[in-house]
Amino acid sequence: MRGSVIGSGSFGTALANVLAVNCEEVRLWGREPAVVEAINTQHENPAYLKGIPISERVRATNSLQEALEGSELVVLATPSHATREVVAKAQAFLPRHVPIVTVSKGIENGTLLTMTELLEDCLPEEFHPYLAVLSGPSFAKELARRMPTVVTIASHWDKVAVRCQKALQTETFRSYTSTDVVGVQYGGALKNVIAIAAGMADGLGMGHNARAAIITRGLAEITRLAVRKGANPLTLSGLSGMGDLVLTCTGELSRNRHVGMELGKGRKLPDILADMKEVAEGVKTARSAHELEQKTGVELPICHQVYLIAHEGKSARTAVVDLMTRQPKSELSGA
Ligand SMILES: NC(=O)C1=CN([C@@H]2O[C@H](COP(=O)(O)OP(=O)(O)OC[C@H]3O[C@@H](n4cnc5c(N)ncnc54)[C@H](O)[C@@H]3O)[C@@H](O)[C@H]2O)C=CC1
Ligand SMILES: O=C(CO)COP(=O)(O)O
């Protein structure tokens, strides 16, 4: 079997390593020539996964045609804001009748589309029955070190999710299938915004009580919006919901939590992002969450404050006071 991964950042590279267990050859596309060169010559991606060996079955390339030719499974692992542009270039070379799995966690700014909706928007209909999404608690650095990781793979077509599940099954990587494409993607995208809030609370030194409250009430607002969009609420208690939310809000490896911590310490967003090579998807997703709140009328109080702090210059301390002094509510009121 031959597999392809489009995007040679930390997660794309880590997943190429997983795919390499079951594939004779994995082609990994990257736009950075130095990364491609290092993967092919040193079997390492020093820019994104320093010190972690990459299987010799993984061959990196700057050519989308070479990456996709003869592939039986395509993984799309670019940051969500780059997905439309990269897929437009890749479309001519995409193989027919093979699963196309997005692992990007984001909601496109402006269109407010999830990644599978974006793919449906920019790919011809013949590709739509092969679309899937992989999401769940999976730090690339742990995955790449073959530390046990369990995720969800969702597709409207169960057979497609099962094909992906089989291709990616290893002794250290396990997945559960689902048909709740909406729930899996809202959970994966919005947990990054909540993780920024959790990081802020830590940066402000607010303690464990505050962090637990952010995780719990964060899950409530993610679930509210996802259900409005058609999700099964149980999905949000699963790996791609609560699982990934807990990981990202508490894990030292999270880039989104890191952004939040720095904001909590009073640094400005452009300065924080200038010091980071890797993507923190929650920054852009906070904008989409803000627009979704306005458009749907579903209350997203934590996401709303993250948007104001990150994009409107509000102070994190004032945001905490505003959250704490919201109108009193019943926990079961659904708002
Ligand atoms: N790193 C992780 O632990 C996990 C990441 N993800 C998701 O995977 C997606 C990719 O993230 P990472 O691999 O972590 O990214 P990264 O931050 O490690 O690397 C970003 C990659 O995207 C490329 N890139 C940036 N802008 C681009 C553009 N305009 N066109 C083409 N390529 C571009 C960079 O060259 C680099 O290869 C994100 O949506 C992220 O949320 C999902 C699960 C875990
Ligand atoms: O999505 C992730 C783990 O599942 C990675 O989270 P960060 O992007 O915050 O590092």
From TrEMBL:
Residues 180-320 form the Glycerol-3-phosphate dehydrogenase NAD-dependent C-terminal domain. It catalyses: sn-glycerol 3-phosphate + NAD(+) = dihydroxyacetone phosphate + NADH + H(+); sn-glycerol 3-phosphate + NADP(+) = dihydroxyacetone phosphate + NADPH + H(+). NADPH binds at S10, F11, R31, Y48, K105, A140, R255, V279, E281. GO terms for molecular function: glycerol-3-phosphate dehydrogenase (NAD+) activity; glycerol-3-phosphate dehydrogenase (NADP+) activity; NAD binding. Keywords: Cytoplasm, Lipid biosynthesis, Lipid metabolism, NAD, NADP, Nucleotide-binding, Oxidoreductase, Phospholipid biosynthesis, Phospholipid metabolism. Substrate binds at K105, R255, N256. Coiled coil: none annotated. Its EC number is 1.1.1.94. GO terms for biological process: carbohydrate metabolic process; glycerol-3-phosphate biosynthetic process; glycerol-3-phosphate catabolic process; glycerophospholipid metabolic process; phospholipid biosynthetic process. Pathway: Membrane lipid metabolism; glycerophospholipid metabolism. Catalyzes the reduction of the glycolytic intermediate dihydroxyacetone phosphate (DHAP) to sn-glycerol 3-phosphate (G3P), the key precursor for phospholipid synthesis. This is Glycerol-3-phosphate dehydrogenase [NAD(P)+]. It comes from Pseudomyxococcus hansupus. The lineage of its organism: Bacteria, Pseudomonadati, Myxococcota, Myxococcia, Myxococcales. The gene is gpsA.
